[in-house]
Every structure is written in structure tokens, then in C-alpha cells.
């Protein structure tokens, strides 16, 4: 499916897969395969149902979450330090931007 991480890694994208693990009421084959891949590779899904969906069907006003972020884990299956925030609607797209903080502090 996707490469096996060899170092601290963040996978972000519109995976277009359905799973109850990220808020869908049903699952599809792609969602099952993606969840299996993440589990096999000990990845952590950065998902907070309280924030709502990342994609809004304009006509129906239904929000779903095809845009996902998986991060690698390390000692005792602790995920690398991350947080995600779904931002407000962006002009001319049904996808909402998502800000991912991976906890790096670089000198300016």
C-alpha cells in the first residue's frame, strides 16, 4: 500500500477511504486496507471527532474526513509529538485546511 517508515515519518493526504476509525458510519475496502497498513506499521492516526470533518459536501452540508494524518510511534508505542487543527473553510474548495504541528522547534 504505502512504504514502511524507516525513520520518524508523517503521512498526510486525502486518502478517500472510509473507516469507522475516522468517523465514517461504514467502511470500504480501501479504508480496511489503510487501517491494516497503519496497524501493521504501528502508526498513530491523528484524528479528533470533536473537530468535525475535513471535507464538506456543499449541497448536503455533510462533513466527512478523507484527509488524514498518520505519524510513526517510538518507545512503548508513543506517537511522535503532534497535534492537528481543522481550520475554517477555504475559498473555492470543499476541503478544509488542516494545520499539523509536529513539535519541531527550529532556530529562526
Largest sheet: 4 strands, antiparallel
Report the end-to-end length measured between terminal Cα atoms: 37 Å
The DSSP helix count reads 1
The chain-level mean pLDDT equals 91
Q: Work out the number of β strands.
A: 8
Rg (CA only): 15 Å
Helix percent reads 10-25%
Percentage beta strand: 25-35%
Q: Give the overall shape.
A: globular
Strand pairing plus helix content: what structural class?
mainly beta
Low-confidence stretches: none
N-to-C SSE series?
Answer: EHEEEEEEE
Domain Endonuclease/exonuclease/phosphatase: 6-78
Protein name: Endonuclease/exonuclease/phosphatase domain-containing protein
GO molecular function: catalytic activity
InterPro entries: Endo/exonu/phosph_ase_sf, Endo/exonuclease/phosphatase, RdDP_mobile_element
Short account of what is shown:
The chain has one helix at residues 29-40; strands at residues 10-14, 43-45, 55-57, 62-64, 67-74, 78-79, 83-86, 98-101.
